[in-house]
Design brief:
There is one protein chain. By secondary structure, this protein is α/β, with parallel strands linked by helices. Strand 2, helix 2 and strand 3 form a beta-alpha-beta unit. It is globular and about 45 Å long.
Length: 169
């Protein structure tokens, strides 16, 4: 039995209210559309998480909600807010689901995708990891605590612009 990790950057957030703290910024219209599209894509691919680890930011919480998916366990972790890859790994090591969705921020989520993968994916946006970019990695290990850098195989990488012609990358 292998493990599947879905790494997603939050959808596009709004800068309309200059009084909002960074942590409190909601999604904008484009972000809401992108999150819905990514949720449908995950569902169509059968990539349904049984555990979600997410930053506590409003935009990550709203991204999760707008994906339209359900999971038996959803944990919003303050330590994932703008976390580097080194801070994400210990949380991943404590995961218990077979398919885990980790929802975070750039550049940490992108760095984690790059560092976990045995090889990068051939996609023009993988290196800059735009909002709502999603990488799916599989691991031959059966326990998350054994997952290390350079041990995951990328099975999918998608951005909103791959799914929606009306969404700018």
């Amino acid at each position: 039995m292998s493990l599947t990790l879905i790494l997603m950057r939050h959808a596009k957030s709004s800068w309309d209210n200059p009084l909002n703290l960074d942590h409190d910024r909601p999604l904008n219209k484009r972000g809401r559309s992108a999150a819905r599209a990514l949720g449908q894509w995950l569902e169509n691919k059968g990539l349904l998480p049984d555990e979600v680890l997410s930053s506590t930011a409003v935009r990550t919480h709203e991204t999760w909600t707008r994906l339209g998916l359900t999971a038996p366990e959803v944990r919003f972790e303050r330590s994932l807010y703008h976390a580097p890859a080194e801070r994400m790994i210990p949380l991943l090591h404590r995961a218990t689901g077979k398919t885990v969705l980790m929802l975070g921020h750039y550049p940490g989520i992108a760095d984690l995708a790059h560092r976990l993968a045995t090889a990068p994916v051939r996609h023009t946006r993988f290196h800059d990891y735009p909002t709502c970019a999603t990488t799916v990695l599989t691991f031959s290990d059966t326990r998350w605590e054994h997952v290390r850098f350079k041990t995951g195989t990328i099975s999918e990488f998608v951005t909103p612009s791959d799914l929606l012609e009306t969404v700018d990358a």
